Amino acid sequence: MFDAITLWHWLTLAVVLLILEVLGTSGFLLGIAVAALAMAGVVALDLTPAWQHQLLLFSLLAVIFTLLYWKVFRRFNDRSAEPLLNDRAAQLVGRRLVLDDTLVGGQGRVRIGDTLWKAEADEELSAGTSVEVWASEGMTLKVRAID
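Now predict its structure.
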């Protein structure tokens, strides 16, 4: 089976890995696919004819290209114009409102728009107190009284 690994074996492997990458592996197979393409180039130049050397070089290149992707190129995907888009509680930090109900023991609920949010304060706050959301922890809003 491993008598000779040809250029076409490496190109086929690269194409299959790229197709799987397109189906949604989030970059996991990208480094391995690039390593297979590099191996196709190495075989085309006839630099490593033995299959053992080809597999060893392929393994090393796959690790190198995968680490390169995760360290260098992955950081471009992490930037977002709206970093709080999916964190609704964090979007409310800085919002001011008046309590409808008393926060008994610093625990209770506040209404923002048509939604009730779990709220915590350092002290008991009575209904009608003006508060500001100063932080969020999960889906719990941290509020404090304002003057």
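The radius of gyration is 28 Å.
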